[in-house]
Description:
Layout: H1 9-16, H2 20-43, H3 47-72, H4 80-92, H5 99-112, H6 131-142, H7 145-157, H8 165-187, H9 194-202, H10 204-217, H11 228-231, H12 239-243, H13 253-258, H14 267-276, H15 289-295
Helix pairs in contact: 2-3, 3-4, 3-5, 3-9, 3-10, 4-8, 6-10
Amino acid sequence: MKAHDVFTRPEVVQLMTRSNLRASQLVLSCWAWVISAMALVAFWPNFFTLAIALLIIAGRQLSFAILMHDCGHNSLFKSSKLNQFVGTWLVSAPVFTDMQTYSRQHTIHHKDVGSADDPDLANYAAYPITKASLLRKFLRDICGLTALKFWFYIVKTRLGSQNSMVSNQALLRGIVVNLVMFLCCYALNMAWLYLVWFAAYNTIYFLFLRIRHIGEHAAVPNSNSPNMFENTRTTLSSWWERLLVSPVYVNYHIEHHLLPSVPPYNLPLMHRWLVAKEAYANIPLPSGYIAMLRSVLH
């Protein structure tokens, strides 16, 4: 199915219209949440505020990964140069992501979703799984084992490799941006605050990232179908899920695959139009991520 099978040309033009103001609001609000969460711990350091900060910061780290994805689609800002700069430095570098490499692989994902050629296949091919298996995966994420595996992969594939100059540059940018964050905390005589960011990244971030991957394509009605209404999932999310596991409109994934050039802030409108056009007839839309996770179990 193509977007023009559902929408008129004026509707497509409206959906694809990008706004630098709305894009900037998304990026700045993510950083504002990070700063606020760290300030919460700085002023009231206790277990309760630390737990809240870890959850909020991990959600914003996921937001950065998603906004990097949008910049890679060149759909967040009007300007390609602005998408490149923000995507490279302000959203991908903080979470040690290589936007250029990701964008190349992600193009293949959109073309070959559900097939053996899909570079994201490993994120969802094993589903449905048992509840015990899912809980073990979540436990590995929370305990930092998934992050440890990621860092071993970074060392193996990037450091010292002569064939990964772009990836090495991305890693260097990540180190630079994280060093700046540490120095800001140090300048405030609170160097320990950086550990809150670091801890969130190496634990809850990978948990939220896994839930995102499961929500997008795991155990969908027909993963081998060329129809994104069958090989992709949209999950209806609540306010607290949007704060944590489904930030910056990432839950509208059918919509994204239907028209990848639509900026994220226009996806809710696109969803409402699809509902009005009865495009989701017989297509399950889980009400929340708990319901979604239950749907991928057997």
